[in-house]
Amino acid sequence: MNHLQKFTAQVRDRLVLLFLINNLIVVGDWWVSSQYFALDGWRLIAMMASVPLVCTLLLPFLMVDSLVQPMKAVWQAVLHLSPQPADTPAPDLAKIRLGKELITNLVSQMYQIASIADSVAADTKTANSGPGHDFVATNLPLPLMILDADNNVVFANQAMCKYLRKDSSEVVSQNVYSVIDMSFGGEHTFDEWLQDAKANKPVAAQTWERVRLNLSDENQESDSIPQFDLAAYYNQGNPEGMETMLVMFDHTQQYSQDDQAMSFVALAVHELRTPLTLLRGYVEAFQEELQGKLDPELDGFLKKMAAASQQLATFVNTILNVSRVENDQMSLELREENWSNVLQTAIGDMRMRAEVRGVELDLQVDDNLPAVGIDRTSIYEVIVNLVDNAIKYSNDSKKVIIHSYLNKEGRVETTVQDFGVGIQSSAIGSIFEKFYRNHRNRAQIGGTGMGLYLSKAIVTAHGGDIWVRSKENEGSTFGFTVLPFGQLAEANKTSHTDASITRTAHGWIKNHSLYRR
Q1: Are 108 and 138 members of one domain?
Q2: Which domain, by its residues, includes 464?
Q3: Domain tally, the chain
């Protein structure tokens, strides 16, 4: 049965249902009127005439939306593709219930026609058609590649071949995954996007930043790895056989300078560890030896020194860990741990810093939390970063609440809530980006803009999620989840209590298909 026949059958079924309901109401009206109200004669006739009349007027109103919905979707698609500035959004095909297959097919065909309408020229039927004979595409200074429906390269311009350090014969007619070895800074890769587009979307576009091009040793001209931003466009069923287009924007110099700058900062910060460790040791020794012997003012000075040295140690660790994340050198060993003990240790270490600022830390841990699979050292950094931020941004508020519980997904979730300055809604989307600082308070409150970036990388490597809810001048709540040890993959577990699972934080992820073929 084709899509039109299926649509016709669906409409027929609904109309039959409409008439059936109307007739049942008429019969029911007659039965109720004669049996319960004992109407006869003209009264019975009037009742039986009025109820069907009401149904005749009411039922079409109830059915019209579902019957008109397919035509509305086509109408919306036409206006969306119209060259006139109608500003009509594309139809949401997922909401269509009646004739979904037919309308989806029609709209897909409309998208395909619209995508080639502007590029159709009088000479498209000649033997010289295609991007290989297009002056702009061939001589475009940006690397450009076009793929067919099977992900084979049908065109690569001169800039692309030069960027890949390959001849045109080594690129054209080859599968894209055998030509380009790309690494992405997250799990959303080009391959994943392309598979989703082929399965669900007639037209799609996507961009990626900081993509790495992995070249063979003989093609690697320098120590720096090519890094670029990638833009991709997908057009399902393109009649010219050009379904996917890739364009690269090289930023190797800029991104390499960023990496070198981060490495230099990490090297400089690393040199602070020895004197900082010595400083913290002396402060702790003074606290032990002079406890109860100093007047309140000097005792306060000593506590402030201890808090400042602890804060500096956190800063040093954050810089070094971010450098490890960026260079894919941060290895996590996930072991079975008591989450309550981990929290109490971290919050205990933060109490002096909170006390110096006059802030109370209220730790609330639900009973019977399961053991979690974590890297204790790295997750400690997450807790300290979130609590430290809550203390710094508490403003005049004197309380920070840390609450840990088992959420609906069976994960251990921990929230850190303050009642301070909050975050404006426009900044929420960028809060976990590296070096991001809120411009409204960065002059008053110190920081590097890397703590939340590092926290997100560590939590993600643990298989958890991190989030934030905030309202300006009312405070913020940061939360993150970790997996119970029992939920970790059985293949990675043993019966021994010291078993661990090794993961990397923010490792570069390659195209999956390259390793499936």
Answers
A1: no
A2: 330-517
A3: 4
- Of 117, 141, 173, the last residue of a domain is 117
Kindly report the backbone phi and psi dihedral angles of residue 446, in degrees, each rounded to the nearest multiple of 5, phi listed first.
-75, 165
Sheet holding 153-156, edge to edge: 153-156, 144-147, 244-250, 227-235, 203-213, 182-184, 509-510
Distance CA 348, CA 350 (A): 5
**Does the reported pTM lie above 0.85?**
no
Q: Which two tokens stand for residue 234?
A: 């997908």
User: Which of 215, 250, 285 is at the close of a domain?
Assistant: 250
* pLDDT in single tens digits along all 517 residues of the chain: 576 677 677 777 777 777 777 777 767 766 666 666 665 666 666 666 666 666 666 666 666 666 777 777 777 777 777 766 556 777 777 777 777 777 777 777 777 777 766 555 444 444 445 565 566 777 788 999 999 999 999 999 989 999 999 998 899 999 999 899 888 876 688 998 999 999 998 999 999 888 888 887 655 555 578 889 999 999 998 888 889 999 999 988 877 776 665 665 656 665 666 676 777 777 777 777 777 777 887 877 777 777 777 667 766 666 666 666 665 556 677 888 999 999 998 898 888 888 888 899 999 999 989 999 988 888 988 998 899 889 988 888 889 999 999 999 999 999 999 999 888 887 887 888 766 655 455 545 545 567 788 888 888 888 889 999 998 888 999 999 999 988 875 535 443 444 455 555 545 566 755 543 3
- Same domain (yes/no): 395, 494: yes
